[in-house]
Design brief:
- The protein is mainly alpha-helical and 206 residues long.
- The protein has 8 helices and 2 strands; from the N terminus they run ααααββαααα.
- It has a two-stranded antiparallel sheet with strand order 1-2.
Length: 206
């Protein structure tokens, strides 16, 4: 049996746990085992599982329904465009007076889209989940060339429309130097020189 088709049939039952919905059980052992297994999963693994279940739902709601084993890069692109309706990032059109302005002074009717960074991270998680569930790397639809080109186009177009650079996230190092400076300076104020301590002790003896 195809493990990918098997996954499609079981995704529905795991979805409530993946999104954190609380279910009622009558056995305390079941609750403790579920909580312990959930605690062992990292935040990345939890997010990857939610993304995987969401994509499985999308395939089942596809018309006609689509199995994961027949999914291609084109279907992944359809999924990414479908997610745009839930986006919260304002992307200015070229006709907008605020095109290229990182901080527009007034609202505009430009559409909301999924940010490039969110889509890029999503594809990375789905690409890993596909192979973890039995998919072959050479048949991974999330690693298709069309998907990579789409993400690159989204990155470039959003950077121009929003007037930003996606290399801004490398500014968290300067604050780390402040504690080390205080550590070097504080001993000079707290510790008196040895000869001063000796002079004070001799004056006390007199």
């Amino acid at each position: 049996m195809d493990p990918l088709q098997d996954l499609d049939s079981t995704t529905t039952t795991t979805l409530p746990l993946a999104v954190g919905i609380t279910t009622t059980t009558t056995t305390a052992t079941t609750l403790s085992s579920a909580s312990s297994s959930t605690s062992t999963l990292s935040r990345y693994e939890n997010q990857k599982r939610r993304d995987w279940n969401t994509f499985g739902q999308y395939l089942r709601n596809h018309r006609p329904p689509l199995s994961l084993s027949r999914c291609s890069g084109a279907h992944v692109l359809e999924f990414l465009r479908y997610l745009d309706q839930f986006g919260k990032t304002k992307v200015h059109t070229q006709l907008c007076p605020f095109f290229g302005h990182p901080n527009p002074p007034a609202p505009c009717p430009c559409p909301l889209r999924q940010a490039w960074g969110s889509l890029d991270a999503l594809i990375g998680r789905l690409r890993a989940a596909f192979e973890e569930h039995g998919g072959q790397p050479e048949n991974n639809p999330f690693g298709a060339r069309a998907v990579r080109l789409y993400l690159r186009d989204v990155r470039d177009s959003q950077a121009k429309a929003r007037g930003i650079s996606y290399e801004k996230k490398k500014r968290k190092r300067p604050p780390q130097q402040l504690p080390s400076q205080h550590q070097h300076q504080s001993p000079t104020f707290l510790m008196p020189p040895p000869h001063a301590a000796a002079a004070n002790s001799s004056s006390d003896d007199q």
